[in-house]
Amino acid sequence: MKFVAYIENTIVMVAMAGMACITFANVLSRYFFDTSFAFAEEITINLFVLATFVGASIAIKRQAHFGFHYFFTKFNPTIQRVLVILTSLLMLFFLSLTLIFGMELVLNQMERGRVTPALTIPQWIFTGAIPLGSLLCMIRTVEVMMIRLKKNHQLPLPKTEVDSKEMKM
Question: What predicted TM-score, i.e. pTM, was given to this entire model?
Answer without folding.
Answer: 0.82
